């Protein structure tokens, strides 16, 4: 598997600025802490989060797809993918990525790959 760098869309920066302004700066520390949990890079061995912590695929326990229901319809949309490892977790927000299809294809391969532990 080729390494995949998760590239954020430019519009995410506008969203961060807007959230900071609308909440008078209260949301900024919360967003910074939450942002550290997001994945930065996938490769053959595992995941590297934005805070530099590394998780190995062999320690992957569960892949949770988090959906949110639309306010005005009964449709649901994917908000986050949570990768749960034995020693922590990493988050992926596919809609905020410029290379969403590439990342989701990679995650699909990893989620369906057999593991040594079971």
Describe this entry's structure for a reader.
This protein has 118 residues and is α+β, with helices and mostly antiparallel strands. It has one domain. Helices cover 29% and strands 32% of the residues. The chain is built from 3 helices and 7 strands. The protein has a 4-stranded antiparallel beta sheet, covered by helices on one side. Strands 5-6-7 form a 3-stranded antiparallel beta sheet, with no helix packed on it. Strand 2 (39-42) and strand 3 (46-49) form a beta hairpin. The mean pLDDT is 85.
Properties at a glance:
118 residues; 3 helices
What's this, in brief?
The chain has 3 helices and 7 strands, in the order βααββββββα.
Layout of strands and helices, then pairs:
Blueprint: E1 4-5, H1 11-22, H2 27-35, E2 39-42, E3 46-49, E4 54-56, E5 60-69, E6 76-85, E7 88-92, H3 100-112
Antiparallel strand pairs: 1-2, 2-3, 3-4, 5-6, 6-7
Along the chain, the helix and strand elements come as EHHEEEEEEH
Number of domains: 1
Q: What fraction of residues sit in β-strands?
A: 25-35%
Total number of β-strand segments? 7
Question: Main sheet, how many strands, which sense, barrel?
Answer: 4 strands, antiparallel
For the residues shown, what is the average pLDDT?
Answer: 85
């Amino acid at each position: 598997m080729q390494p995949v760098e998760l590239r954020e869309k430019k519009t995410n920066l506008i969203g961060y600025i807007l959230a900071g302004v609308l909440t008078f700066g209260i949301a900024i520390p919360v967003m910074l802490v939450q942002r550290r949990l997001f994945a930065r890079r996938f490769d053959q061995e595992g995941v590297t989060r934005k805070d530099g912590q590394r998780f190995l695929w062999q320690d992957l326990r569960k892949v949770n797809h988090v959906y949110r229901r639309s306010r005005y319809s009964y449709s649901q949309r994917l908000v986050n993918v949570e990768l749960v490892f034995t020693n922590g977790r990493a988050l992926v927000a596919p809609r905020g990525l410029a290379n969403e299809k590439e990342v989701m294809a990679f995650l699909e391969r990893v989620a369906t790959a057999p593991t040594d532990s079971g």
